[in-house]
Fold Xaa-Pro dipeptidyl-peptidase-like domain-containing protein.
Amino acid sequence: GKVGMFGLSWGAFNSIQMAMRNPPALKAIVAIMGTDDLFRDDVHFMDGMMHIDSY
């Protein structure tokens, strides 16, 4: 089959993670405002440090 994924924020992260597994049916993803590294890029935990002012 030909499967595409779309995701915004957490859904984008899920799409990127699925694409990294390289399933044969996945042909395209649209990842909007997502990250592939929650340790380095996450808005709440940049560089592994929790940003209290985000809450």
Observations:
- The longest helix spans residues 10-20.
- The CA atoms of residues 1 and 15 lie 17 Å apart.
- Residues 3-54 form one domain.
